[in-house]
Write a structure and sequence with these properties.
The complex is a heterodimer. Chain A is an alpha+beta fold. Chain A contains 3 helices and 10 strands; from the N terminus they run ββββαββααββββ. Chain B has helices at 52-59, 98-105, 110-113, 121-130, 215-218, 221-237; strands spanning 3-9, 14-19, 24-29, 36-42, 69-71, 77-84, 143-145, 149-151, 157-159, 169-174, 178-183, 200-205. Classes of the chains: A alpha+beta, B alpha+beta. Chains A and B meet through α1 and α2 of A and α1 and α6 of B.
């Protein structure tokens, strides 16, 4: 657990993402992005792209390989598919975040739960719409394995993997500094079929601080 | 089962091809200590691809073994693991790239070493993907057959050496016409300080599509529902 010294009152950008909605925004090199879990146990499914060349994007396997560990927390470098650091996590009051669980989709909900769950809203539809609205149109092809901030997917030494109850709570946050200009795409998860959102999807807030306002 | 095709890949070799529904691909570790990095795509709709998260969360498992399945990102199955003498295959650690191979094994370029030069998993994937019109945007977390990596309670990963022995094999049955892209570069965490990727034999075998009672679908209700989605896809397509 690492707390931040940044004051929300000095943030240059604040936006609340309702559950089930998407958000796409550029984070400039040196800026700090905070994702705040307003009501607790809310999965924020997140993708990053290089703003200069979106074919360079967040790599879950590259991030796991670089730290030789599964969970994301303070000190984790979020790696790109080109082996570059996109952002580094600098504060985290939740403790750990997932990058194995991926995003829910209407198609995978039929596999995971029941064929009649196909009608339910899902993250990958939000990712598709957010990606299409970026300045350079991105497509399904650009949507790969994401980060699930505030989500708890423990892996056992025997190789079991479960979506467990969340370890987040109201007011917990994760903060990261951009090492290059990046595009951030968030789907605030609408999943109702497992405990990843505490069975009750709620809003998250995103805050951005400029380089000079980091108390330097 | 009748063998339709066989090929022995050198260490750090690469291969790609379309294998149709029902056929099997057997990978054999000839010397022990091999690794096969693999990506899979629906041969006709190549933006449908192997999805590590759906494969893991759909089956509540962190690794792969028989009789589990390889899921696409569209709620369908690409392949099932029908035979397996190894019992644990990694899919979370990705593949090596030029920088990792250089820092681990030193400079060994083509100019100096001719065909003994050091290849890496990323370059091999990108070369074979390009032959099917695919590229960097299609590179996603891959499978690493024959390699075992375990996580401790804190999530720290350890490579388990000596896991796959000479003669060990794994066999996949394709559940949809599938583009298979693979290479035999070492696992990124392979501890051998000497660059010594191992040869692997590929056998493609004739076979039939399975029914709903198949052990790969009985192991998890999620797999049976995914197979039902395949059946719908094939009914509409045929």
């Amino acid at each position: 657990m690492t707390e931040s010294s940044l004051d929300p009152a000095s943030a240059t950008y604040r936006h609340v993402i309702p559950a089930g909605d998407w958000w796409v925004h550029e984070i400039k090199k040196g800026q700090t992005l905070r994702i705040l879990d307003l009501e607790g146990n809310q999965a924020a499914d997140t993708l990053f792209y290089s703003a200069a060349d979106p074919t360079e994007r967040y790599s879950a396997d590259g991030t796991i390989q670089a730290q030789q560990a599964l969970y994301l927390t303070t000190g984790t470098k979020l790696m790109s598919t080109e082996g570059n650091v996109l952002l580094e996590i600098t504060a985290d009051t939740c403790g750990r975040h997932d990058t194995l669980g991926g995003a829910c989709s209407r198609e995978s909900n039929t596999m995971r739960y029941a064929h009649d769950k196909e009608c339910m809203h899902a993250c990958r539809d939000s990712f598709i719409r957010g990606a299409q609205e970026w300045k350079v149109e991105l497509t399904k092809r650009d949507i790969a394995c994401n980060i699930n901030f505030f989500m708890n997917v423990p892996v056992s030494p025997e190789g079991g993997l479960t979506f467990a109850d969340g370890i987040s709570a109201p007011g917990r946050y994760v903060e990261m500094v951009a090492a290059m200009d990046v595009v951030c795409l968030i789907s605030n998860c609408p999943q109702l079929n497992n405990p990843c959102n505490g069975w009750n999807p709620t809003p998250v807030e995103v805050l951005i601080w400029d380089v000079l306002e980091r108390g330097l | 089962m009748k063998t339709l095709y066989e090929k022995t890949l050198t260490g750090a070799g690469m291969w790609s091809g379309v294998i149709s529904r029902g056929k099997r691909l057997r990978l054999t570790d000839l010397e022990g200590g091999a690794n096969v990095s693999m990506l899979l795509y629906n041969a006709l709709e190549r933006n449908e691809r192997y999805n590590m998260p759906d494969t893991l969360k759909g089956q509540h498992i962190f690794y792969l073994r028989a009789p589990y399945c390889l899921h696409s990102d569209m709620g369908r199955l690409l392949a099932s693991i029908t035979a397996d003498t190894v019992g644990w295959h990694d899919t979370v650690c990705g593949h090596s790239d030029a920088a990792r191979v250089l820092s681990k094994y030193g400079e060994h370029n083509y100019q100096q070493a001719r065909n003994e030069w050091h290849r890496n998993g990323r370059d091999c994937f990108l070369i074979e993907l390009a032959k099917w019109g695919l590229g960097k945007r299609d590179l996603v977390p891959n499978l690493n057959w024959f390699s075992k990596v375990v996580a401790d309670e804190a999530g720290k990963l350890s490579f388990v050496p000596g896991h796959s022995k000479a003669g060990d094999f794994v066999e996949l049955r394709f559940e949809i016409d599938t583009l298979v892209v693979l290479n035999t570069c070492q696992h990124p965490f392979y501890p051998d300080p000497v660059y010594r990727p191992r040869p692997v034999k590929l056998d493609v075998l004739a076979g039939e599509a399975p029914g709903p009672e198949d052990p790969c679908f009985a192991v998890r209700p999620e797999n049976l529902r995914a197979w039902e989605n395949n059946e719908t896809y094939h009914t509409l397509r045929s």
